[in-house]
Amino acid sequence: MEEKTPVAETGEKETVSKNFIEQEIEKDLAEGVYDHVQTRFPPEPNGYLHIGHAKSILLNYGLAKKYGGKFNLRFDDTNPTKEKVEFVESIKADVQWLGADYEDRLFFASDYFEQMYECAVLLIKKGKAFVCDLTADQIREYRGDFKTPGKESPYRNRSVEENLRLFEEMREGKYQDGEKVLRAKIDMASPNINMRDPVIYRVAHMSHHNTGDKWCIYPMYDFAHPIEDAIEHITHSICTLEFEDHRPLYDWVVRECEFENPPRQIEFAKLYLTNVVTGKRYIKKLVEDGIVDGWDDPRLVSIAALRRRGYTPESIRMFVDLVGVAKANSSVDYALLEYCIREDLKLKRARMMAVLDPVKLVIDNYPEDQMEEVEVPNNLENPDLGTRMVPFGRELYIEREDFMEVPPKKYFRMFPGNEVRLMGAYFVTCTGCEKDENGNVTVVHCTYDPETKGGSSADGRKVKGTIHWVAAKTAVKAECRLYENIVDEEKGKLNEDGTLNLNPNSLTVLSECYVEPELGKAQAYDSYQFMRNGYFCADCKDSRPDHLVFNRIVSLKSSFKLKKD
Asked: Which pTM does this prediction carry?
């Protein structure tokens, strides 16, 4: 699959790994098939892009960049029934966010409708296309199957003149939807069903998002796509494996339409993630049923959803690199994606104090009206991020789980009589707690040792437990959203009836959280590590200065281990 090529210049044993697509491109360049490399990402604007599309975007862009070529973004907008400007804009934003720079090369298939029409006319004149009156069901019936050759349409042998007239009348709007189609004339006995006189134009009286009502006939994807590539001088049309059987038709179209130095199609394996929802039909239903709050709900793996949740372009690129390029389909564990975001953020982001399930801690021997600041490192693993000053006072919030009245063995946090470190501040000794009428702890009490400021003692005594905290007087209230997989992983993705098997606990909203004052300045997409709670990102839609909302990107730890060669 991969070739290891020695780097001769250095004389060292360094190797450069090439995937099979790079090997093919280098062969084409060496043999003079092409003198440049030009790739494209060609989405249909009928929904939001997902993580699988990210692989295609980054692969195509990366190939162009590696070989000093150019990369186009082109919308395959040949089906006005499903396409929207909203989807066009979301795709542009996704591609730009991932860092795939198409410069000024933004194109639409609909820009080429006139040239596609001319190509169809050329095929008719060459006796390679005909207007057919069969219905869609009849065409399907005549096509045959893998065991049975197809049967020729009774309209297959119309004269060139009649076909030209009928095709022009189709364009003029004289026929209803489905009344006539234009078909390529290839081979009804071909073992490849895609070559059995495929439909290349159909009548569709619909407004188009880009061309309005100019056209009432639209080209089919398998006809339009190779023409678009050829017009844009694409050299290598990189697509996923399901188009492998369509390659003979792709080659037939560019050859019969007489394009010089036509592009070459190469297929690679799709990216499948375990237990995630990527199908547009499923996502559309989740949106319509109000189960998610849009195509960018952070429980989805659309690129917009990953961005909103707090994933970075760097983490997506790392993920795509680790997955690699293969010829055989396989599934990738979602945990690998989570591994990549942890790896990307762990040295880049400040470790902030946020209490998600608060209980009040009162330091009984601390002066009531006193407030001070303690210095806290922003990231212990990366001293370059410096330190910050955090307010400290008599009353704090700590995590409820950091206190137990009757602790189990090896519990080193707060319980009566135990001494712990308040991160960056002082040693404190728990003296007891207050409870409400239901037995729930409402306040924890402790005393502090003034000689331990900074979290260490002059006498060298050690404490085993360190807990984070937020000063009650300066705490900022926030909402934190904890996301889990929207699919029930234990039961599998689909029920027997084909519906999604949803996880009822995919979203937990904690509305009574307290965070340190610095987090009150968080802007959309700002991300942090909340000590001991995970990585969090300020929500781009709902967070505002008077109502902070943080999405948990990922927990701090996972059982996932990256296999190393």
From this structure: 0.89
